[in-house]
Amino acid sequence: FDEALEVTKIYSISGLLNGQRFMVTRPFRSPHHTTSYVGLIGGSASPKPGEISLAHRGVLFLDEFPEFSRNVLESLRQPLEDGVVSISRAKQRISFPADFMLIAAANPCPCGFLGDSTRECTCSSLQILRYQKRLSGPLLDRIDIHVDVPAVKTEKLVSELNLETSEKVRKRIIKAAEIQKKRLKNTKAITNGQMNAKDIKTYLDLSE
Question: pLDDT by residue (tens digit) across 75-84?
Answer without folding.
Answer: 999 999 999 9
